[in-house]
Write a structure and sequence with these properties.
By secondary structure, the chain is α+β, with helices and mostly antiparallel strands. It is 31% helix and 26% strand.
């Protein structure tokens, strides 16, 4: 096929979810059509270096999340950067300045810090290349659980009671327990959906959870626990997003933690799609889309919440770069909703390119227009 789209899949990163990002990237690259795309794997190391090579040279042969890693030996990678020139974005060999290839679109498969928080999105916008997923604002809002919750509350979306503390705040357990009750969840405000998250059922667990959360951010969120069924739903789109069928998560761990979500294949049972009435499905889909739009999201996101006995769907968070591993909910929910993995990726790429085209229509010559 002529005129294949040149797509750079960026993975790894300076994040606690570095290893999960690599596994997600494996699945994305397996499912991108070789007839439609020329694929350029770009690995970001934990110390921030950007490297290009064939995927098998960039990544270890291990596939387990606890052992998979980037290869760092001599000759296993080429240091690169992306540079914009005359409206085109080039993949550049840092050593000799050689243009390896033009890049038409970037798929950042970067979970957590520096990948899901607007950092990489800002860089990609500066170099003028279309990229999959939310823009700078939507990414930053979606990552910050404090700002996210405040915006949802203002929009009338149901959320749980929560408190926010910085690392120099006085944290009074007795006052917090009186406000939120037990159990409660303690989370870094800016980290992946399960990184540094703990469930606390007493003071000792609470103090341990606070210490753990502050390892991953300087601001933490403490939430009241919700009694209900854990529901996740996938959303796709720019101006006119649509939602998949919802899925039910039944954790086999104490809660749906990092290990259950990404590492332990038996960490949870899933009902995909969730066996719910048509009325409840429509309600959950509407709340998910409202959440997506309130938080200025584009491209894709997974919306997580709890369905209570009285039918209220309470939003916990949104993930603007959801997992793409073999056990991840985002692609699974679209599959049961009639959108196969390769077609899902095609749509995400198209959304990225369409958004960039519209951005290019925005006038930048103000002085000449006075």
């Amino acid at each position: 096929m002529e005129n294949k789209i040149k797509i750079a899949v960026v993975f790894g990163g300076q994040s606690a979810e570095h290893e999960i990002s690599i596994i997600s990237a494996i699945n994305v690259m397996k499912s991108l059509s070789m007839k439609k795309y020329d694929i350029f794997p770009i690995a970001i190391s934990k110390d921030g270096g950007w490297f290009f090579d064939s995927f098998d040279k960039l990544v270890s042969t291990e596939t387990d999340a606890k052992t998979i890693h980037l290869e760092t030996g001599a000759g296993s990678r080429t240091a690169i950067t992306l540079i914009s020139n005359q409206g085109k974005t080039g993949l550049i060999d840092v050593k000799d300045g050689r243009v390896i290839s033009q890049i038409d679109v970037v798929f950042p498969v970067l979970h957590g810090t520096n990948g899901e928080d607007g950092a990489i999105q800002g860089f990609l916008k500066l170099v003028g290349v279309p990229f999959v997923g939310a823009g700078v604002l939507g990414s930053a809002i979606g990552m910050d659980k404090d700002v996210m919750k405040r915006l949802l509350k203002e929009a009338g979306v149901s959320i749980t009671d929560f408190l926010v503390f910085s690392n120099n705040s006085k944290i009074d357990y007795e006052k917090i327990e009186a406000k939120l009750g037990l159990p409660m969840f303690v989370k870094p405000a800016n980290a992946g959906s399960s990184v540094g998250v703990s469930r606390a059922e007493n003071k000792a667990e609470f103090l341990k959870a606070v210490k753990k959360a502050f390892l991953f951010d300087q601001k933490i969120v403490i939430e009241k626990a919700i009694s209900g069924e854990e529901i996740e739903i996938s959303v796709i789109g720019n101006e006119n997003p649509r939602a998949s069928l919802p899925g039910r998560v039944i954790p086999n761990h104490k809660f749906y933690d990092y290990e259950a979500k990404y590492i332990d294949e038996n960490g949870a049972n899933f009902e995909i799609p969730a066996k719910l009435s048509e009325e409840l499905i429509r309600k959950i889909q509407a709340v998910a889309i409202q959440t997506y739009q309130t938080l200025c999201c584009e491209g894709m996101a997974r919306v997580d919440g709890f369905l209570t006995e009285d039918g209220d769907f309470i939003i916990i968070e949104i993930n603007t770069i959801p997992g793409f591993t073999s056990i991840s909910m985002y692609p699974k929910l679209w599959k049961v909703s009639g959108l196969a993995y390769p077609d899902l990726l095609d749509q995400l790429v198209k959304l990225a390119i369409d958004r960039r085209k519209k951005e290019m229509e925005i006038e930048v010559n103000f002085v000449n227009k006075i």
